[in-house]
Design brief:
The protein is mostly helical and about 80 residues long. It has a domain of about 35 residues. Helix content is about 50%, strand content about 0%. It is built from three helices and no strands. Helix 1 packs across helix 2. It starts with 10 loop residues before the first helix and ends in a 23-residue tail after the last helix.
């Protein structure tokens, strides 16, 4: 596998890369690789896939469970 060296990266960009890497649980090299790969490969057009990828990038999405109501009574007279 080939190596890539980036020279003269400004401190602000390097700091942001370090923060992003920490947020995603990666090394700086791993984060830079993920950024390059995601920007060079086309994003899938499915909104479901984009949502899934966005959720994965932030370690998941928590939804509140909707309130549950008891099931309605069904009038079965004449059915059985």
């Amino acid at each position: 596998m080939a190596d890539l060296l980036i020279r003269d990266l400004n401190e602000g960009t390097k700091r942001l890369l370090r923060e992003w890497a920490a947020r995603h649980g990666r090394t700086q090299q791993g984060e830079a690789k993920a950024i390059l790969e995601s920007s060079l490969h086309p994003e899938p057009s499915s909104w479901v896939t984009r949502l899934r990828n966005a959720a994965q990038a932030v370690s998941g999405i928590d939804f509140e469970d909707p309130p549950r109501h008891p099931a309605r009574e069904i009038d079965t007279r004449g059915w059985v």
